[in-house]
Design goal:
With 100 residues, this protein is mainly α. 65% of the residues lie in helices and 0% in strands. The protein contains 5 helices and no strands. It is elongated and about 85 Å long. 0% of the residues are buried.
């Protein structure tokens, strides 16, 4: 590579740095942010989601509740009717915080 090619290469790299695609995404309305990232790419990957784990845990707990209700069993002196009573109880959150 001669001096002329090296100079052109250096100028090309400087131009890419100046006008490159490494600038942050402009302020885009949240509704259109996903479409913008699909079109122009996104350098930062999204953080992993825990939705699948939470869904699996909820389904597991629901299956345990149904099993307890069907077999009329108790776990640590708690049966399915007590769980339903606790869920449907109206709780005053402000009062509960004061008691802590």
């Amino acid at each position: 590579m001669n001096d002329s090619e090296k100079r052109r290469q250096r100028l090309l790299e400087q131009t890419r740095e100046l006008y490159g695609e490494k600038r942050p995404i402009p302020a885009v309305h949240p509704r259109y942010g996903s479409a913008y990232r699909q079109i122009y790419g996104d350098e930062q990957p999204l953080p992993p989601s825990t939705f699948g784990i939470r869904l699996f845990l909820c389904l597991l707990l629901f299956a345990a509740f149904v099993s307890m209700d069907k077999n009329k069993s108790e776990v640590m002196h708690v049966n399915s009717s007590r769980i339903v009573d606790e869920i449907t109880t109206n709780l005053d959150v402000a009062e509960a915080w004061r008691e802590l």
